[in-house]
Structures are given as C-alpha cells and as structure tokens.
Write a structure and sequence with these properties.
Elements lengths: L20 H33 L18 H29 L3 H30 L8 H27 L6 H22 L24 H10 L10 H6 L4 H9 L16 H16 L7 H30 L1 H13 L8 H48 L2 H6 L2 H17 L6 H20 L2 H46 L1 H6 L3 H34 L1 H16 L5 H42 L9 E4 L6 E10 L10 E9 L3 E6 L5 H9 L4 E9 L2 E4 L8 E2 H6 L6 H10 L3 H6 L7 E2 L8 H15 L3 E5 L7 H15 L4 E5 L11 E6 L2 E6 L1 H7 L1 H21 L9 H28 L18 H10 L6 H25 L12 H46 L3 H6 L2 H43 L3 H46 L1 H6 L3 H50 L7 H11 L2 H29 L24 E9 L6 E10 L4 E6 L5 H8 L7 E6 L2 E2 L5 H5 L2 E4 L8 E2 H5 L7 H10 L3 H6 L7 E2 L8 H15 L3 E5 L7 H14 L4 E5 L3 H5 L3 E6 L2 E6 L1 H6 L4 H16 L7
Parallel strand pairs: 1-5, 4-10, 4-11, 6-9, 9-10, 15-22, 15-23, 18-21, 21-22
Antiparallel strand pairs: 2-3, 2-5, 7-8, 11-12, 13-14, 13-16, 16-17, 19-20, 23-24
Helix pairs in contact: 1-3, 1-4, 2-3, 2-5, 4-5, 8-35, 9-10, 9-12, 10-12, 10-15, 10-20, 11-12, 11-20, 11-38, 12-14, 12-37, 14-16, 14-20, 14-35, 15-16, 15-20, 16-18, 16-19, 16-20, 16-34, 18-20, 18-32, 19-20, 19-32, 20-31, 20-38, 27-28, 31-32, 31-34, 31-38, 32-34, 32-39, 34-35, 34-38, 34-39, ...
GO molecular function: ABC-type xenobiotic transporter activity; ATP binding
Protein name: ABC-type xenobiotic transporter
Membrane topology: Multi-pass membrane protein
Length: 1505
C-alpha cells in the first residue's frame, strides 16, 4: 500500500523487520499474486463447467432486468479506480526513479504496484463477466468477498505502520504514500460493507423494467415481445443529472443489444414531446395561427412552425456550442506559456501542474459540451422531421383530385422520404454560421496576443478563403436542385413500373421500361457527376485553407519584422487547426442551408396546394331529414378551368331507404356522379346535401396490405355475429376456407395475392360491416362471376341493406328493375330518371342499353334450344369427358396429399434484415466495384503524403524558429518561408488528387450498383413483386441509392483518412515520449473494446431504422391511392393515428441510435483525455533540458486534437458501418433469383410460331410459393387451335392462375403446357410472351401519351395505331383531344375512365394480332353494349386465333366452342356449351339457368312494353 520516498533509509538486515517498507511491499505483492493465481484457476474451472453444461436444456430466465447485488456499478467502478490508480503510481514512480537511480526497495515497490494493477483490473473483468452471464445473483462470489477482507486488513496494517514510521521514527513520507494507503483503506472498507451488508437490488421497485426475457410459455410470447419496448418509456425521461451528462441512461439498451439481436420491441418509447403525438400539434397550431384563414403556407411560416416545435433544444444546443467554442481556444492560448515553462521560464511554484489542470478542465468542458450539442440538435431534428412527415401525411389525405394530378404519388413520397429527412438533418449545421464568426474572432484574439498586427492578415486570408466558397456553393446548389428534380422523375417512373410490373411481364415490355428508367438515371447521373466534382474542388479549397492561412500569416510576420518564436508559432498552428474545422465545414453548411431551403420550399408549396373544399357537401345530422341525398342544379368538373363541366344540370333527390341505380355507356359520367355525392369532385355551382354516414365501394378495389380481417373491420370493433353475417352475404366463407390462414391471411400490397373478385367482395364486406346510412357502390358486380353477382345483389343490396339508402352504378341490366329510381347518364347529364318501366317507355338511351342486353340473351336462348352452331366432334368430346372424371378423382387425392405436405406460410414475409456484423465481403465488394479497386491505393497514398507533408511543415516551423528572443534562429527568414511554402503546396496538391480520385471512384461505383440492382429487380419473377411491398423496393431505389451516390464514398474515405491522421498524431507524440505508449496502448485497447461492445446495438439500431422507414412510406403510398375510400368512411383520424405509430416506430431507433453514439463518444473522449493529460504530466514532471521545448510543444499542439480525432475515427467506423448497410441492402437485391432467360438462342421458335395456336395442357400443377398449397392440382385438357374456349368457375377456383402459368408468370410445379407442340418451358420468356396477347383483368395505362400506351416498343406506324383505335371505338375520342396521338395520359391513366382504359388494352391486342389471345375478365368494367361491341370486334379480327376467355358474364362464353369449368384447382367439366347444357345436372347448366332466370325475371315486364 505504501510508496516510500527515496530518502527512507532501508535497514537491509536478514532478520524480518515488520516495519520495513520492503517487507510490506513484498507481502502485499505476494498476496495479490496468490489471489491473481486463484482467480485464474477459478475462471478456467468455470469455463470447463460451462462447456459441459452446454448440452443441458437452458433454464428459463424470467427477468430481463436481472436482480443485481447491492452497489454493483459502484463496486465495479471502485475496482477499476484502484487498477487505474495503481497504474498511475507505477508510472510516476518509474519516471521519478528512472531519473534518481534504482535500489532493491524501489524495484520491489514497482513490482508490487504492477501486480496490484493487474489484480484490480482482473477483479473488474471477473465481476463484469459474472453479472453479464449469470441470471439472478444475490451475492458477490465468495472468493471476491474473502479477498476484500484480506485487502482491507492489509491496508489497515500499512496505514498503522505509516503513523508509526512518521511519529516514532520521524522519517519523511511523500504525499503519494499517504494518498495511496488512505485510498486503499477506504476502498477496502467500502468493499467489505457491500460484500457482507448490502441488500439485493433491482427486484421490487423495478416497475416496468421487469419484463420476461424468454417466453415462459408459448401463450405469453407475443405479449412479452410487445411489453419490452412498446410499454417501456425511454430511461432518458427519468434519468438523473449525472446519467444525462454521461449518457449512462443508454447503458441498459446497449447492454441488451450486446446479449441479443435488438428488435423494435426492445427499443423503448419516446418521451411525449419527442414523439410525433407531442410535436405535431405544436407545428399544426403554429401554422394555423400563421396562415390565418388562407391555405397558403410560405417557407417562412414553415420555419417558424418548426422552430416553435424545437425551440428549447435549439436554445440549449446554442449554449453548448458557445461553451464548446470557448473551451477549444483555451489550449492554443496556453501553448506558448507551456513552451516557455519547459524552456525554464517559470512564474511561480507548481505552475506546471496549474497548466495541466487548465488544459484538463478545458478539454473536459469541450468534451461534455460537444457531446450534448450533438445530441440535442439530433433530438430536435428527429422531432421536426416527425412533425413534418405527419403534416405531409395529413395533407395527402385532404388533397383535391386536381392538386393530386399536379404531384404524382412518387413525388409526394419524396417529400416525406428525402425532403423531410434533410430538414431533420439540418440541426447539425444550424449553429455553424454564428459559430464560425465567433471562432474567427477568438482566433484573432489568440493570434493578436502571439503575432500582433499579423493577425489582421490572417483575418483577410480567412475571409478570402470563405469568399472562394461562394461561387462553388452556388454551383453546388444548382446541381443539387437539378439532381433532386431528375431523381423525382426517376422515382415517379419507378413507382409506376412497380405498380404495373405484372402487365409489363405479360406483354414482354419490362426491358423497354428498364431502359426508360436507365435513361432517366443517366440524366440524374450527369448532375451527380457535376455535383461530386464540384464537391471535390470544395474539399481541395478547404483542406488547403489552414495551410494557405498559415503561409500568408507567417509571410506577413517576416515582412513586418515580427519575431517568430516556436511557442508562438505552435500556438498559431493550433489556432489554424481549430479554424480548419469550421472553415472546412462551411461549404457543407452552405450547401446544407441551400438544400434545406429548397426542401422547405418544396414542402411549403405542397402544403399550399388546394384541399378538397369542405363546403362541397352540406352534411345534415343523422335522422334530421327524410331526404338522404339531394343535388340541386349541380354543375361539377374535374378540371375547374375547363370550359365545359364534366357533369351538367344534375338534379337528384333520394329519400331515405331508397335504392337508386345509375347506368349508361362507358365515359357517360356514372362514377363522376358518385364522386360528387362523396364530395370528391370540385363543384362549380348548385348544392349537395347528405344526411347520415356513408360507405363507398370503388370501381377499382382498394385493399390495404394486412390481414383480411383488418380490411373488413376497417377500424371497427369485432362483433363476431355481425362479422359472420357479412362474410356469408359476400360469399367469402368458402374463399377463406381455401386460403391458408383464413381471414388471418396477410394480403400483399394492393391485394396482390387475391383474385379481382375476391378483392371486390372484401371491399363490399368492408362497407357492409361499417353499418352506414348511405351506401355508394361503383359497379361492384362486374369483377365477380354471374352466380356470385346474383348472390351479392340479393344478399347485400336486397337483403342486409334493404332498409338503407343504396346508390349503385351497374352495367348489368338485370339488376336495374329492383331499383326505386334509375338514373340514365349520357355525356355528363342525367338523360332519363325514373322507375324501370317508366323510363323504358319514355326514351331511347335506356332502350339502347336494354336492347344490347336482349341481344346477349338471345344467344342464351339459341344455345339452350340446342341450335348452337358448334362443330361437334364426338371422338374427342366423349373421351375428354370420361378422362376429366377420372382425372378429377385422382387429383382430389393428389391435392390432399399435396396440401398436407406443404408447409403453409404467408405470401408477404417480414422484410429480411441481415443480422450481426456487416461482413467484410460487403466492404470489399464496394471498394472493388469501380475499376477493380485499382484507384484505391492511389487515394490512400495521396492522403499519406498529405499527412507526412503536413506534419513535416509544422515540424520544420517549430524546429527552425528559436524558443525565445534571446536564442539565434538556426536558418534565415527567407529559407524558413520558402521551405514552408513548398511543403504547403505539396500537401495541397495531394489533397486535390485525393478529392478528384475519390469523386471518380464514388461516381463509378454508384452507377454500377444502380444498373446491376435495377437489372436484377426487372428480371425478378413476379412472385418477388407479389411478396415484396413496393415501398421496400422504392426505399432501396431512393434512400439507399442516395446514400451510395452522395454519402458512402466520403464515409469510407473519411474512415481511411482519419486512421492515417490518428497514426500521424501518435507518431508525433511518441517522438517526445515513447513512455506515452504505456498509457496509450491500454487506452486504445479499452477504446476498441468499447466500440465492439457498442457496435452490436448500434448496427441493429441502424438496420431497424432502415426496416422501419419502409412501412411509413408504404402506408403513405397506400393512403394516397385510397384517400377517397378513407374519406368516404370518415376514417381519416384512424389513418392519421396509424401513421403516427409508424413514424414513432421509425423515430425510436433513430433517437436511441443517436444517444448510443454519444454514449460511446463521451467515453472515448474521456479516455483520450487521460492520454493527453498523462503526456502533459510527464512533460511538466521531467527536469528542464531533458527534451527540446519546441518539439514538446509540437506534440502538445497535435495532442490537443487527439480526443477529436480518436472520436472521429470511431465515429467514422460506426457511421461507415451504418451507411454501408445501404450497400448491403442493394447487394441483397442484386442477388434476387432471376426469371428463366428471356431468349434461349439455341432453342428459338421460328418467326411464324404459333401457326395453329393449339394449347395442350398435361397434368398441370401450380403453387405460388414453395411454402404455399397447390392452386392448380393436375389439369389435363387441350384448347384447340383457332377455336374459342371459355373458362368459368367460382372466384378463386384457379382461372387466373391457369392464365399466369400459360404466360409463365408462375412456373408449373409439375406437368407441362405445349403450344403447337413446343413446350413453353423450353423457350425464352420473351419469345413466348411476345407471341401471346392478353387483355388483363385490371386495365392499365402508363403516364405518357396515347401513342406510348398503345405501342411502347415503337413497332407500328401512326396509320396502324389509328386503325386499331377505330376498331376499338376510341378513334373519335382521341381525335377530339388536342394532341391527338400525343395527348397526355396522366399517372395510372387517371384522366381516362376504367372502361376507356379497357378499350385501350383492346387496342394493344389489335395492333399485336397474335395467334393466341387471352381475355382475363376483360369486359368486367364496361356496359353490355360496349361488351357486345368488343366481342364483335374480337370475332371479326381474331376469327382464326385461339381465344381463351375467362368471364363472369355467362353470355361472353356461350358462343365459345368449348367451356372449361374449374372448381378449387380441378377440372369439373370440359365440353362444348351445347353438350354441357343438354345435361341439366351439369354445373355449367345450373349457372346458365340461374343467369337466364335472373335476367328473364328482370325482363318480365319487357314483353308488355
């Protein structure tokens, strides 16, 4: 325990003297050594025991927060303190005796201290691992407690001896000696207290932190997962001042992340003010008060709103910035004093230690203030971003249709994903402008003190450097804006492609659209290149800035005759180095201010767009009037500026409980009429009144991704009886039985894994479950088969809704007689209104519709009469029918076996996120992507040369200038400056080379990764798009690609450069005292250990940030596409609530990730402070003249930067790991399994294939994914060449799947399909798909022109296109438009009605003239007249083609040559319609009978008219 001074006289006799210091040290050291040995043995034994227990089943741990023994942290810190304390004593004694000579006693003392250091560090590690690995621990290990007792007694013994020696023997003792023994005794006493008297802590009052870690039983698994993070409030909310200062409140989460992979459930909830629920109302209220009554939001208003949300954090961080700036200049201003002190000019006693204390205090304040400045600005940024994103979301919900057309969904998503994110990041740069001014002023003060008037020259030089920045900043701003605009365009095109990928694959257009995306990317890449090279020039200017400023300043000193001394020069260099940071960051700050201004402007413009006017509809309270809907003199227009309104002179009066049908030809304005009742369509004049709540079923089904049950309940509570009743009415029960998880099945994005009919019926169920007063149906029966259509009409409209007000648009005339009022639409007007019989007599428009229907029915009669003109060939018919029956029985068994064998799984899987460390291959792949990595060594070489020249120039200045005025300078003034300037020019040139090379490599890598990822996505099979929400793909194409474009090259570069700089500093410091390594090596070891301890949590938090961003974007995209449905159900508050939950889910990992970073940096700062302080203590302790003062000063100058650099290295490692995850995610998508080849050169069919068009199906089995059940269960049949085959069957029976297999969207699991004898699986996909034609179920149009929609591959002439348009009855419509073939088509073809879009798809088919044509419910969205017209066109132009029709209208398959009836993936019947109708028991005959019964009952009155 004691450290004796060298004056203590040792009585070196052989007899044992119990008062002899040598004996005491020997005893103490031996006891420590024995303890160390026993501890080691105990550790080995534990390891062996752990190995043997490895195979026993683990016991359940019941608590995440383990019950720890008393004062666990304090004990651990005490042990660490004793270790560090003994290390410092060892260190000091070593230098003291190194100078004054050695003796036996000194060697024994030194050994004693070394063994103690080792022992206490070992105890610390032992305790830490004990409590890390074990569960509930009530006591400290017996061995440790025994040791503490021994240690306490030995310490007391030594302290008693001290008094004896001091008072009785009157020997002098050093201060170190007293401090050592008193510390040891006090610590021993503390250890004994906690070891024997301490109570167990962490048990009772842990409150919400006691959560199950592993599920005790299966049933509480879900709850326990939710509990941990979902209900726990962040420890930051209740942390003590010390905990906040040192970020210790993050310890629990980092510790948890070290034991297991963190999930979102583990991340605690944010404080009220940091969550979007706390921040958004503040922003909203401020904007409302600023805007007054107007809807216009200016950039300034938005800024004020955001400041009101985060003003406390901004103010607090400003205080920290001020403290930080003041503290940074204490060091440079003291360097000259330190150099003079080392040179022997000492003002007073202990001046050295006072200097050390000043340096230490300043660095500590600097470290604390910087950490809290960084944390607070990030906290403010997250809060502002969350509030902004929610504001954008709410705006998206209320946008008018006209405003929505101004911005596509892709652009709106960019406001959220990119612009709001950038505004959130602005916090980092917020204080830079005034901080730079303050730093320059302080620098001038320090320089004036050292260099006098030359400091004015410094000011001029600094201003010059800053001015150079202006043109570069302007250029950067310009390029950035262009880059953003081109990115918006690309994202818009990409989101459209992803929405319509199925149609692109079916038509073999995907590579054409990929080339369009690449063209857009090339434009973007042009701006990216300019932006990166401008950035490189900026980097060159600013890395060269300190060198330029110092050259000018020292040159001015020479000219002015100001004497240069090494102390003053070093002080000036340290000042320039501090100035480098703000000046270097200034371009970033300027560009960030510019980018933020652009983003704020974009968001303000978006927030200023027109909302749906709230006064379109007058809402009357429920039950206050008998009139449910009333429109008086209504004129409405989608385009307010248009001369002719879309709907004119609308007068409608609907009383409560009435059924109203709306009919009319395609494009007559039926859907528009519903829109104006909903308040979706801008009103020009008139009044609309609505009494009661409303529910709406759109024509194109809008389904949310999520469970089917969630889609039906749509925010309502579950009432099982009502729910079952609704399922029954919508005939969903059978479908749910087929689905692997029933109503718990997760639906893919936009209901992608459901058939059109299923989506439509879920939509109807959603409306029914709401129990509204008014129901609006927009042609919901078109997407379902005849049988289901009748069922829906009878059960829903005539059944469940018999007492409600129902308005339904329909093309099916048979549903009209049931209506109390029929509105016939023509050219945007109600041409007729009244009851069925009344309007049938009174006008021609309605008669046309009914006449078309009659025509269709006449086919039915002729077939039933057996006079159908069907070529009958008994040979194949009879055999086929027998074959089918046999096949069906066999396959029923196969189906069962197959189902049970297949593990069932959801289609949409959780987003895969890599776990654990980012592998080195990811870095290697990134570094070697461009030019095989050949430029990387040159970049590193340039940085190393820069570092060497930089240090060389500073070394030269400190060596070549005298320490004080009375010493002659070693070289002349001109030599001094010439050498310095040449070294400076050399280092600047190295920076230029480095910056240009880095920009080149970064640009090239980004381009290669983009092309490979997009190629991979476009070549992915359709199953990938079904199972992957587009938000995930868009996230990679926008956020991750942005990171690769703009951040990662600089991040990876920064990491390498910071390491090189750190090595440079260490080299300079070790030049002065190699002994610094004794401190430095353990410090670095602890730093690395801390970084490793931290990184596992940080890495997972960063991945969670990536994974949690996609749901925010996806939910937003879904909301925008379904906004009219959401509004019609008055569900905006619920959707806003969901959005808030998702935004907070994204903010939580972000907030804790930022705090974890500061937790680490604070600890690293403290460690580097220990190194720097040790260096200073060493310098002031050694005798004068041992070391050259100017070189020592140089070491201190560099040492001042040590903490910043050490933190920068670790910061870079972490940021690089976080950012490189973007590369990892892109590489993940580069490895998506590809579809089979587009063309197989060795097996290409000839250009005339298929000549017959005969489709032969043999034992076809299909499932959508390996983990899902079979959908087609062994089909065998032949579709004959040139014949028409109709496919019918219940919704979900496998009709659409059969077609997808024909186009190889889905590959067969077993069996095969041949067309004209060639197996479709043996040829390339494009060779197959380009020879087949399809009119798909969902009509699709792309943004562009009419021409680009009909002929995207540009294969046909204008004449051919016009001919096709005329054939499909759109010629007139297109000729009316201004641009003719070049007239614009908006996103999704929104400016065309659904029926018109269907006709465009017909036009595509007519252009292509294939031998095999598939109609997938192609006439679902058109009225009967248009349907007849389409059928006629097809009969005329595809007379000798094989036409395969999937239809819900029986009439469209009745004139087929063959009918295939599918049921649950099996063939139930396959024959000619006439044969099937002869057999009254056949399922097909029953369907037809039902249809004709329904239709004839509708026409009962028709005969009389």
């Amino acid at each position: 325990m004691s450290v004796f001074s060298s004056s203590s006289s040792s009585s070196s006799h052989l007899k044992i003297d119990f008062l002899n210091p040598m004996f005491l040290h020997g005893l103490s050291g031996s006891l420590h050594l024995i303890f160390l040995f026993i501890l080691f043995i105990s550790w080995v034994y534990e390891k062996i025991r752990a190995k043997t227990n490895e195979y026993e089943p683990p016991k359940h741990t019941t608590s995440t927060r383990k019950a720890k023994v008393s004062c666990y942290k304090a004990t651990l810190l005490g042990c660490l303190f004793l270790g560090v304390f003994n290390l410092v004593l060892c260190f000091l004694n070593h230098f003291l005796w190194y100078r004054n000579g050695w003796s036996d006693e000194k060697i024994v003392t030194l050994l004693d201290l070394s063994v103690k250091t080792l022992s206490w560090f070992a105890v610390s590690i032992f305790l830490h691992t004990q409590f890390l690995n074990s569960g509930e621990t009530k006591k400290y290990p017996f061995l440790i407690r025994l040791w503490w007792v021994v240690f306490f007694f030995v310490s007391c013994y030594c302290l008693v001896i001290d008094f004896v020696v001091y008072y009785e023997k009157h020997q002098s003792l050093t201060t170190l000696f007293w401090v050592s023994d008193i510390c040891s005794t006090l610590m021993g006493l503390f250890f004994c207290f906690v070891g024997f008297l301490g109570k167990k802590e962490g048990g009772e009052n842990d409150g919400n932190l006691q959560e199950p870690l592993l599920n005790g039983s299966a049933n509480n698994g879900i709850e326990s997962k939710k509990d941990t993070g979902e209900r726990t409030l962040t420890p930051y909310a209740n942390a003590s001042l010390f905990s906040i200062l040192t970020f210790s409140w993050m310890g629990s989460l980092i510790s948890l992340g070290n034991k297991k992979t963190l999930d979102l459930e583990d991340v605690p909830q944010l404080m009220e003010l940091d969550s979007v629920r706390g921040a958004f109302p503040i922003l909203e209220n401020k904007l409302e008060s600023e805007c007054g009554g107007s809807s216009k939001v200016t950039t300034m208003m938005l800024v004020k709103g955001l400041i009101s949300t985060v003003w406390k954090e901004v103010l607090l961080s400003a205080v920290f910035v001020l403290l930080y700036t003041l503290a940074t200049y204490v060091g440079p201003s003291l360097i000259d004093t330190l150099v003079q002190y080392l040179n022997g000019h000492r003002e007073f006693d202990n001046e050295g230690y006072i200097l050390v204390s000043a340096f230490f205090g300043a660095k500590l304040v600097e470290c604390l203030s910087q950490r809290h400045w960084f944390f607070r600005v990030q906290q403010a940024g997250f809060r502002a971003r969350a509030a902004l994103v929610e504001k954008i979301y709410c705006k998206g919900l209320t946008l008018s249709c006209h405003s929505k057309q101004e911005h596509t969904s892709g652009e709106i998503i960019n406001f959220m994903a990119v612009d709001a994110e950038r505004i959130g990041d602005f916090g980092w740069y917020m204080h830079d402008p005034w901080m730079v001014a303050l730093q320059v002023c302080l620098a001038l003060v320090v320089l004036y003190k050292n260099l006098g008037l030359a400091s004015l020259v410094t000011l001029v030089a600094t201003i010059l450097v800053m001015l150079t920045n202006y043109p570069l900043g302007k250029l950067q701003e310009n390029f950035q804006e262009k880059l953003m605009k081109s990115k918006d365009k690309r994202m818009k095109a990409m989101s459209e492609v992803l929405r319509n990928m199925r149609i692109l694959k079916l038509q073999a257009w995907e590579m054409k659209f990929l080339s369009r995306i690449q063209e857009l990317r090339n434009t973007e890449a042009g701006w990216l290149k300019k932006f990166m090279y401008t950035s490189a020039m900026t980097t060159f200017v600013f890395w060269g800035a300190p060198t330029f400023v110092s050259v000018v300043t020292f040159g001015a000193c020479m000219l002015m005759g100001i004497p240069l001394e090494s102390g003053k020069i070093l002080s000036a260099l340290a000042t320039f180095r501090i100035l480098q940071e703000p000046i270097y960051n200034l371009p970033d700050t300027i560009s960030m201010i510019v980018q933020t201004k652009v983003s704020l402007g974009r968001i303000a413009a978006f927030l200023s767009l027109d909302d749906l006017p709230p006064d379109v509809i007058q809402k009357l309270p429920r039950g206050s009037s008998d009139v449910a809907i009333e429109i008086v003199d209504g004129n409405f227009s989608w385009d307010v500026s248009s001369a002719t309104p879309s709907l004119r002179d609308i007068n409608v009066n609907v009383t409560r409980g009435m059924r109203v049908a709306i009919c009319g030809a395609v494009g007559a304005g039926k859907s528009s009429l519903l829109s104006c009742i909903l308040g979706e369509m801008p009103k020009l004049s008139g009044t609309v009144k609505l009494c009661g709540t409303k529910a709406y079923v759109a024509q194109s089904p809008w389904i949310q991704s999520g469970k089917i049950e969630e889609n039906i309940l749509f925010g309502k509570e579950m009432e099982r009886e009502k729910y079952n009743c609704v399922l029954e009415a919508c005939s969903l029960k059978k479908d749910l039985e087929i689905l692997p998880f029933g109503d718990q099945t997760v639906i893919g994005e936009r209901g992608i894994n459901l058939s059109g009919g299923q989506k439509q019926r879920i939509q109807i169920a959603r409306a029914l479950y709401q129990d509204a007063d008014i129901y609006l149906f927009d042609d919901p029966f078109s997407a379902v088969d005849a049988h289901t259509g009748t069922h829906l009409f009878n059960e829903c409209i005539l059944g469940l809704l018999s007492s409600k007000t129902v308005v339904y648009v329909t093309h099916q005339v048979e549903f009209l007689p049931a209506a109390d009022l029929i509105l016939v639409m023509k050219d945007g007007k109600v041409s007729q209104a009244g009851k069925y019989n009344d309007i049938l007599k009174s006008g021609s428009d309605f008669m046309e519709l009914v006449g078309a229907h009659r025509e269709a029915l006449s086919v039915l009669d002729s077939v039933e009469g057996g006079s159908a003109s069907i070529s009958e060939d008994g040979s194949w018919e009879g055999s086929n029918k027998k074959f089918v029956k046999k096949e069906e029985n066999g396959d029923a068994q196969n189906g069962k076996i197959d189902d049970s064998a297949a593990p069932k799984g959801q289609l949409v899987q959780e987003e895969e996120r890599e776990k654990g460390k980012v592998g080195f291959p990811v870095y290697w792949k990134y570094i070697t992507t461009a030019y095989g990595g050949t430029l990387v060594p040159f970049i590193l070489l340039a940085q190393i040369l820069f570092q060497v020249l930089q240090i060389g120039s500073n070394y030269w200045m400190s060596w070549a200038t005298p320490v004080s005025e009375d010493v002659a300078p070693p070289v002349t003034g001109s030599t001094l400056i010439i050498v310095y300037v040449s070294l400076a020019i050399g280092s600047s040139f190295c920076i230029l080379v480095r910056a240009l090379l880095l920009a080149t490599v970064g640009y090239k890598t980004a381009t290669i990764l983009f092309n490979k990822m997009h190629f991979s996505i476009f070549r992915a099979p359709m199953s990938f798009f079904d199972a992957t929400p587009s938000g995930r793909i868009l996230n990679r194409a926008s956020t991750d690609q942005s990171a690769v474009d703009l951040n990662i090259p600089y991040q990876v570069g920064s990491f390498a450069f910071s390491i090189i700089q750190l090595l440079g500093i260490i080299a300079v410091m070790s030049q002065v005292s190699w002994q610094i390594f004794i401190i430095f090596i353990p410090v670095i070891a602890i730093c690395i250990w801390l970084e490793q301890y931290y990184i596992s949590s940080a890495r997972e938090l960063a991945r969670l940030i990536g994974v949690c961003k996609a749901p925010v974007i996806q939910h937003f995209a879904e909301t925008i596409s379904g906004s009219s449905t959401i509004r019609s159900f008055d569900q905006e508050p619920r959707f806003q609530d969901t959005s808030m939950k998702l935004i907070d889910g994204y903010s939580r990992p972000k907030f804790h990730s930022a705090a974890a970073m500061e937790w680490l940096c604070f600890r690293l700062d403290v460690l580097s402070l220990i190194t720097f302080t040790s260096l200073l203590v060493f310098l002031v302790s050694i005798p004068k003249g041992t070391i050259d003062p100017s070189v020592a000063g140089l070491a201190v100058t560099y040492g001042l930067n040590l903490n910043m650099l050490q933190a920068w290295v670790i910061w870079n490692i972490c940021l690089m790991e976080n950012k490189i995850i973007s590369v990892e995610r892109i590489l993940q998508y580069m490895g998506i399994p590809s579809e089979p080849p587009l063309v197989i050169e060795s097996n290409r069919p000839d250009s005339h294939w298929p000549s017959q068009g005969e489709v032969d199906i043999r034992d076809l089995q299909v499932r959508y994914a390996p983990h899902m059940p079979l959908v087609l269960r062994g089909l065998t049949c032949t579709f004959f060449g040139g014949k028409k085959t109709g496919i019918v069957g219940r919704t979900g029976s496998g009709k659409s799947t059969l077609i997808q297999t024909l186009f190889r969207i889905v590959e067969p699991t077993g069996g095969q399909i041949q067309i004209d004898g060639i197996s479709i699986s043996s040829i390339g996909l494009h060779d197959l798909r380009s020879q087949l034609s399809i009119i798909p179920q969902d009509p699709t149009m792309f943004e562009g022109t009419v021409r680009s929609n009909l002929d995207p591959l540009e294969e046909y002439t204008d004449e051919q296109i016009w001919e096709a348009l005329d054939k499909c009855q759109l010629g007139e419509e297109v000729r009316k438009k201004e641009g003719k073939l070049d007239s614009a088509v908006s996103e999704n073809g929104e400016n065309w009605s659904v029926g018109q879009r269907q006709l465009v798809c017909l036009g595509r088919v007519l252009l292509k003239k294939s031998k095999v044509l598939v109609l997938d419910e192609a006439t679902a969205s058109v009225d009967t007249a248009t349907d007849n017209l389409i059928q006629q066109t097809l009969r005329q132009h595809f007379a000798d083609s094989t036409v395969i029709t999937i239809a819900h209208r029986i009439t469209s398959v009745l004139d087929s040559d063959m009918v295939l009836l599918l049921d649950n993936g099996l063939i139930e019947e396959y024959d000619s319609p006439a044969k099937l109708l002869e057999d009254r028991t056949s399922s097909f005959a029953k369907l037809v009978a039902e249809y004709s019964m329904r239709s004839t009952s509708s026409f009962g009155n028709l005969e009389n008219s």
